[in-house]
Please model this.
Amino acid sequence: MSLTVHLFPCLSDNYGFLVRDTATGAVACVDTPDGARVLEELERLGWGRLDLILNTHWHPDHTQGNAAVKASTGAEIAGPEEVRRAAPLDRVIGGGDCVMLGETVFDVTATPGHTLGHVVFRSAPDSIAFVGDTLFPLGCGRLFEGSPDQMWDSLQALSAWPDQTVLYGAHEYTVANARFALSLDDRPEMAAHAEAIFAARARGEPTVPTTLAVEKAFNPFLRARDAADFASRRAAKDSFAG
Model:
């Protein structure tokens, strides 16, 4: 494995990610929820540099640290054009592009739905993907800009990846997502999976990352029959109070 991933909590429920290419020492952060926290964790790790900021989408809780982190480190900021709505951006990227971090190649996949320009980053050889607000453990992002059909297509694109792909979603929403999943799925294995999540959170442990195999087995949005079923489930989750 050529990548080291450091996950850390920030803001109320975000995760930040610092990623190091072990062959070259090149370092990236994925989104900048809190610039001060990114810089604090970078200093604590002793990695000594930050070369790249990768933005998944424009929302401020993913971009508001761009300026401060770039000012402190000189890192290049790469992300979709929509990032310019909220923060500095140096290089525009979109679906089908590749971004290099040292010897690591991140393939960029467009995943419209949560926002229209949302992208995700995957290192296929490392079986690691940073999926922003497109996919969470047992959940998916709200449709603030895109349509249900767009998000369904985005989730299908992710589902085509190998099952062993490790997925780093950007928020700790899993307890609420598990409660919703239980309302749709009465399998004993779903109950056991939810109980393991509740126990992990009670111990203060993160539920990120997950794997695509686990999400295919339990995520109610990946288990939808088709786009119409997905749309119904997403609407139900938006009003779920369980």
Q: What stands out?
A: The radius of gyration is 17 Å. The first helix runs from residue 35 to 45.
